[in-house]
Amino acid sequence: MKSLIIIPARGGSKRIPRKNVRIMCGKPLIVYSIENARSLKKYMDVDVAVSTDDEELGGIVRKRGVEVIARPAELATDSVTLDPVIYHALTCMEEKKRCRYDTVITMQCTSPTLKAETVKNAVEFFEGSGWDTVISAMNKPHLSWSVKDGQIVKNYDKRLNSQELPANYVETGGFLITRRECVTETGRIGKKVNIFEIPEDEAVDIDTYSDWVLCENILRRKRIMFRTVGKMKLGMGHIYRCLTLAYKLTGHDIVFVADKDSDIGIDKINESNFPLIVVDDEDDFERVLDRERPDILVNDILDTSVAYMTMVNRYAGRVVNFEDVGPGAKYADAVINALYEKGEKLHNEYYGSRYFCIRDEFLEEEPSEFSEKVENMIIIFGGADPSDLTGRLYKVVKEIHKEYKKIRFHFLLGFAYEHKDKIVTDEENNIFVHNDVRRVSSYMSKADLAVTSQGRTVFELASMGVPSVVLAQNEREAEHVFAGIQNGFINLGIGREQDDSTIISTIKWLIMTPNVRSEMRRLQLLKDFSKGQERVIHLILNDTDDEE
To answer: Which residues of 225-254 are buried (b: 16+ CB within 10 A; e: fewer)?
Structure first.
């Protein structure tokens, strides 16, 4: 079966002057259609021709080895439809090639987001069917209205949600595939017609400047893969950070990858509705990389090896690592270690709290006024609390309550905390337990004092100006130096190595010294976390230089 692809391309355009020759994301608009058309030569017997009245367009087309059909002036006016244009180009090509084509495919040059694979699938669909014509369309079900006898009338029987409405196919400018015998000067559509549904982001037909901007955004979209981990021993900080960033990368194609033993992390990602791939081991992950070929891979899995980084660099265009102090870190394009501090930035390393990705809720919440009396105290040890510091503090605050009867103790338990059955509200001791809180910032903003672990929560408490006592979950967490007195925290080191009496005496001392708490709060609020997300997003996308 021999096919002809015709790309109609006038030089004149009213809404966007010289539209077809303008540069979009590095190349003339018409080139996208030419590349899609030429890609079909690998799979079928096809000729490609562009019908144009414009010399500049003709030069762009010839440079890429495509036939140019000179369109007569009478076929290049605003009032002429495409049917006579396609018929003219078809007869010219048949005369030139001394053949008769079986199939004629019209491809508009105003559909730059259309993918070559989609066109290939549509042609295969057409050739394997008995249809005369197949037209590209997208399904856009909407409640709609029309005019009948001068009155506005509805086009539906019952108001339904869009996903429950019947299909409503809207033609796109992507392609129209038809049998040769259907092409005349007045039409191209046969009696037996079907549509080939294409995704909405491939269906943009550039007619206005808004369409142009939308296409540029789609073409610049990256496929970004987050490989992360969330399990009891490591907690949930990595998962929460990746989700925070993924929500900010709106418009990009996001996919998560987690190892099969990241049970609590998998649950949280599934809850977010982002696509998730679960892998068995490193070999399985390599197969995923080979299949997905991400533009950007974000590793939030702690230290990497040289072998691992060598492998991922074969498949990903850019690699960004978090909290990586392993030997593989130097092979990343960027390493972001917000929880660590370093006096000097190396070639690919970005250290310190200025790169902390605080969640949006903390940017919207305002710290409450400072209170000389401690009225509300929160105890929060992250999503999992693998060391069960919550259990220890549950006993500790009961001792503190004996002396400070009016203080309310709020325990904020993460969704993966294993001992929820033992930590329950105890109003007699003014203890209130809150499970899997959706908006932690609202509790922090009202707190006068906190006890927490040494991960991401210390940054959140600092943003709310809450003087805090810190107990690290493990040795690695103890290396996170932000939670020190210089930033408004009393750090008691690794939790399991500290006795209860020291914890109790420290909390009581802070309760009794409002001047100390006031200074701690002042130091915390000196930190500005509002630009952290933005800095990290720029580093991931590599779209700007860091200002320092």
So the answer is: bbbbbbbbebbbbbbbbbbbbbeebeebeb
CATH of the domain at 170: 3.90.550.10
Mean pLDDT of all residues belonging to the chain: 93
Locate 22 and state its tokens. 């303008």
pLDDT by residue (tens digit) across 423-450?
A: 999 999 999 999 989 899 999 999 999 9
Q: Is 149 left (phi over 0), alpha (psi -120 to 50) or beta?
A: left
Q: Would 100 be classed as within a structural domain?
A: yes
433 in Cβ contact with 424 (< 8 Å): yes
Residue 546's pLDDT is 47
* Domain co-membership, 416 together with 470: yes
Q: CA 316, CA 296: separation in Å to the nearest integer?
A: 6
Residues 6 or more apart in contact with residue 209 via CB below 8 angstroms: 15, 16
Question: Is the same domain home to 515 and 394?
Answer: yes
* 106-122 core/surface letters (b: 16 or more CB in 10 A; e: else): bbbbbbbbbbeebbbeb
Residue 471 lies in a domain: yes
pTM for the model stands at 0.77
Residues 333, 422 share a domain: no
| CA torsion, ordered 238, 242, 245, 247, to nearest 10 deg | -130
Helix (H, G, I), strand (E, B) or coil at 449: strand
446, HSE (Cβ side, Cα atoms, 13 Å):
10
Q: What are the residues facing 231 on neighbouring strands?
A: 235
Residue 544: pLDDT band by 50, 70, 90 thresholds?
A: low
141 φψ region: left (φ > 0), alpha (ψ -120 to 50), beta (else): beta
Supply the CATH number for residue 295's domain: 3.40.50.11190
Sheet strands side by side (includes 296-300): 276-279, 253-259, 223-228, 296-300, 318-322, 334-337, 349-351
The last residue of one of the domains, among 174, 194, 218, is: 218
Domain encompassing residue 250: 221-358+535-541
Is residue 547 domain-resident?
no
Domains identified in the chain, total number: 3
The helix (run of H) or strand (run of E) holding residue 379 is strand 376-380
